[in-house]
Amino acid sequence: MKKVKDPNRLRFKDYFGSSAMAVCEAVGACIMTSLFMLYLTDYSGLGKLGAVLGSTVLVLARFFDAVNDPLEGWLMDRAKVGKHGKYRPFLLLSTILISVGLIGLFSIPVGENPNIILIGAWVIIFYLLYDIGVAFFALNPMLRTMTINPDERGKLLIGPRMISMLVGMVGAAMISIISNVNKGIGNMRTSFTIVITAFVGIGALISILGLALVREKHHAQEDPEDQVKLTDIFGMLKTNGALRIRLLDMLFSGFIWTFLFATMTYYVKWAYCADLTTGAVDTGKLGILSLIAAMLMFLPLIIGTFIAAPLMKKFGSPIKFHRFLILAQSVPCLVLFVLELLGVLRLSPVPFFVCAAIVTIAIGADFIPGETLNIECMDYEIYKNGRDRSALCNACNKFLNKAQSAVSTVMVSGILLAIGYEVDSVTDTFLGELSSIPTMLTWFIVIMGLVPSILGIVAWLFLKKYPITDEIRADMSQKLNK
After folding, report:
1. Which member of 91, 287, 449, 476 lies 3.0 to 4.6 Å from 337 by CB, making a disulfide possible if both were Cys?
2. Contact 258, 404 (CB under 8 A)
3. How far apart are CA 149 and CA 138, in angstroms?
4. Checking phi first, is residue 279 left (phi over 0); if not, alpha (psi -120 to 50) or beta?
5. 174-205 tens-digit pLDDT
6. Are 100 and 126 in contact (CB under 8 A)?
7. What is the DSSP letter of 433?
8. Do 195 and 173 form a contact (C-beta atoms < 8 A)?
């Protein structure tokens, strides 16, 4: 009897390909997060105009995303399954647009008498190319088609996650690399362009190689008369309970990471490295503790990512593991706040870093079940409504992430302004009222401790309403395999 091939069985090339195809997007995210504003203000030749232009573009882009992300999701869902699959062509387009956009953004043609209008148009055009490319990066819909098995999906997600962290480590050293290149060039602006172009080009080639290795297997058979409409996004939110609960979960729990690391450096600096009688900062101590804080952004995330897949299998389902990890993030945040109230936290940085490390490990581990749930919501739309709206589901997740980033930035900036935060850029001495530093520290812990713990508990309670049980998951897997 001929042995039937398991349609969910994955091979090495599937794991390698799904990891490699994420390289270009990860390079773009790293460069834009850490270098875009620095390049505009310090190295593009625009001076103060660079700061105004960069801030304006980043804010306006979020309004653009509100229309663009659902529109691109609609285009991908309407696409037919062709010779090269349904999502692979869009991922290739994404790689090209991201690459062109990044190279253009870091190659601004600034002369002796720059034309502000032309330069503004240049930055806007290439930023929109980059932003459109990111929206077309349909990784989760692609992974959904590769296997129905949630454990296998968890394994597939490890590679892209590791790629993003490794690229982040390289990004942290990017200024050093550019400075070394500049020793032989003598022009930092040119050095920036050369190094960014090289990294983006290499990332694009690796991503294209990865795309050539992966194959889509599972696609829903839909009624040709049932055309995908942009308004389907509202129908999904109404009928797809899994997607609705998951978005509510992300709306609250997604702020834990953002708030913790948005204020961590500030707290470490003024609680453990400053003389509260003079406002002076011990820069040597700050350097050491900042390095520890930076390591907390990478090592625990890596550890959490590696232990996530086997632990999720032991928990039996991604939702059970995810709910546990939400608590594992919320409780240490609450401990931080309690230790601050008791006056213990400022005595030593050890309990602070221990709590932060526990939260970060849980966040690192939560990436796998969290993304598995995102893909499961796509499955549920097909299972419940008989329609493949994976790209629209993905667009909801992406827009929420972008909006959260913007909201958290505004909130943290507002808090710093409210407490009169001002520091001498030369001496690194606090210029505000010294007596306000303890109050400032308490507010930092409220933001990184109390608020995330409350938001995490709210998300945990919402997740009790998640509609996909083990029985539904098994039935869903069986029907989608057919």
Report:
1. 449
2. yes
3. 19
4. left
5. 777 887 888 888 888 888 889 999 999 999 99
6. yes
7. -
8. no
